[in-house]
Amino acid sequence: MGLTFQKISKKYGAVVAIKHAEMKIDNGEVRAILGGNGSGKSTLAKVLGGLISKDTGEIIFDGNVIDFKSPKDAKKNHVIMTSQELSLFGNLTVEENICICDIPVKGVFADKKKIKEKSLEILKVMRLENIASKKVEELAPNQQYMVELAKALVQDPKILIIDEITSALYREDVEIVDDIIKNLKKKGCIVLFISHRMAELYAMCDSVTIMKNGETLGTYAMQEKTESELLSLMVGMKVDTTRERKNHQTESRKDIFIKAPHIKIPSYGTEESLEIGRGEIIGVAGLQGHGQTDLIDALYGVFGEIKLEMDENEISIHNSRQAVTRGFAFISGDRERDGTFQERNLAENVAAVKELVKHEKITDTRAILDSFNVKYDNPGQLITALSGGNQQKVVVGRWLSTKPKLLLANDPTKGIDVKARSDLHKEFAKLAGEGSAVIMISSDDDELVNVTSMVECSRVIVMYEGHISAILEGASITRENISAAAMPIEEKTNVDVAERGGLDE
């Protein structure tokens, strides 16, 4: 039996979102949907989940034609969708959010005891019991996405659509999701898994369907194709994912131009120091919540005054605006909160920093949008009309057009497709090649290995409990070494792994 899509199409005016898409998925199968931003994968998922209507075609589940008119209708039939656009209420607790679709009642009132029991059962599976009574607005982004998944799981899905929620998760979260998916498979649940993290697809999925320009190009067993082959199918041209690490410069050869001796890490009440070289990419890794974001925010003036030495001059930065005028830039992976102006058009979003803060005129918005391969109709359209990945490209274009001396990036590729992520890494490497520096947090250790391999001067610093627990350089920058350094270290902090030859010796 299972799930079958037959010639599904969807248009928005003249724009074709899906064109004759076809798929067949068996019960108990985990199917990856892989495609670039705007390829139609999320639209197809929304059609199945009842968020939007299809124009033509049929969806058949276990021999019956299904055509849900709303998410509520889909949920009644145990077809549940989670997505990057969270459906949580920030002012409610975690346990209230988990049960919001089917609140246990006692008379005319909510039964708080049953809500607690019902939510705690799934929170234990997800190892999140400690946040049950917290309000969602108080949680870190990765925890919010885990709650979004918990909310779906409590509804006993027969078909579960996971659309990009793992892009905000850390390694330990992804391991929990992996265990959950294995249990769902045993129950016969169908999982549609949309992610741009290739390692996750190979670890969790049985098969993969490639989408491009709204069409389903083909379906393959996950282990049948290499990553390069899948990406080549996805973009329509040969892609080589192998990467050689550049000849690495030693610490003594770095041209240090920023010294930050007192970086506050408020979450732990600690301080760290950092010296930043021209042309350097510094990756920042660690388990979620160990001070990575604080490090970048402090450098950007978020916590008030920070004193730096820049180009041998003592300077003070009191706020983010001053940071920008000093040549700093900030890109966040949380584009809705920190990146886009959602009621403004593309031209206004691109111009926001350069014109309003640096008072420099942008003469060609299209050139900036086109250079980052943004898919758009015209610069006057609202940014919300674009896919999530294309919105993030607009944000990146806005900042890189200012030619920053120091780029601070907090998980900037979240929700961007694999090809676009590679393009963004090249832009960061290009920026470093022009003499600027990049400090980049990523929840994906593989990403940090890749991006630091693209320049001659790079490091990965690993944070643990508000301190830099390890500094990796050259051949020591591996996923295994990053993972090991992120775990509790009792001996001492600030271990320079490069000096002792790596963690795996």
Walk me through this protein's architecture.
The structure is a single chain. The strands form 5 sheets. Strands 18-19-20-15-21-22-23 form a 7-stranded mixed beta sheet, sandwiched between helices. Residues 488-505 have low confidence and may be disordered. It has 3 domains: 3-235, 3-Layer(aba) Sandwich (Rossmann fold); 255-327 and 404-414 and 435-499, P-loop containing nucleotide triphosphate hydrolases (Rossmann fold, 3-Layer(aba) Sandwich); 333-403, no CATH class. The protein has helices spanning 41-48, 71-76, 94-98, 112-125, 141-153, 171-186, 198-204, 227-235, 292-299, 320-325, 335-339, 346-356, 365-371, 388-400, 418-433, 445-452, 479-486, and strands at 3-12, 15-25, 30-35, 56-61, 64-66, 79-83, 105-106, 109-110, 159-163, 190-194, 207-212, 215-221, 256-265, 270-277, 280-285, 306-310, 313-317, 328-332, 406-410, 437-441, 457-464, 467-472, 495-496. The chain starts with a strand and ends in a 9-residue tail after the last strand. Helix 12 crosses helix 13 (365-371) and helix 12 runs parallel beside helix 14 (388-400). Strand 16 and strand 17 (313-317) form a beta hairpin. The protein is α/β, with parallel strands linked by helices and 505 residues long. It contains 17 helices and 23 strands. This is ABC-type sugar transport system, ATPase component. Its EC number is 3.6.3.17.
